Amino acid sequence: MKNSGFTWRKRLRSFKYAFHGIWLLVRYEHNAWIHCFAAVCVLLAGFLLNLSAEEWIVIAFAIGLVLAAEAINSSIEALADLVSPEYNEAIKRTKDLAAGAVLILAITAAIVGFIVFIPKLFIFFE
């Protein structure tokens, strides 16, 4: 692909494509629905428990990283299915590794959530 230089129009168009990617993730990827539901629950709990700015930062990063990982995983799976529609051990390994990365981040986000929310819940229910 030939690079014809920088223009603001091209940069704005790239945002359009990126937002379309987010729309595809939220609209069609079932696992992303689970992550979005969890994110909404965490955001509601954060407002109810009056999180500090620092706590909001770590929560925002945790949510963003999990959703970004899910988007990367979904794109790897879509490309792998296009390249090799029939069973292929290397494709299976690639898809499993990508799914494992999402799981690692989701578990890490849950741990972060426990670290942030458990002390707040103890204070809330005192």
Automatic annotation (TrEMBL):
Q: Where in the cell does this protein reside?
A: Cell membrane
Pfam families assigned to the protein according to its UniProt record, in alphabetical order: DAGK_prokar
> TM segments?
32-50, 56-76, 97-118
Keyword vocabulary terms for this entry: ATP-binding, Cell membrane, Kinase, Lipid biosynthesis, Lipid metabolism, Membrane, Nucleotide-binding, Phospholipid biosynthesis, Phospholipid metabolism, Transferase, Transmembrane, Transmembrane helix
User: Would you say which domain of life the source belongs to?
Assistant: Bacteria
Q: Name one GO molecular function term.
A: kinase activity
Membrane topology qualifier: Multi-pass membrane protein
The record's annotation in PANTHER family points to: DIACYLGLYCEROL KINASE (PTHR34299)
Q: What's the family?
A: Belongs to the bacterial diacylglycerol kinase family.
This chain's protein is named Diacylglycerol kinase family protein
Q: Which organism is it from?
A: Parabacteroides faecalis
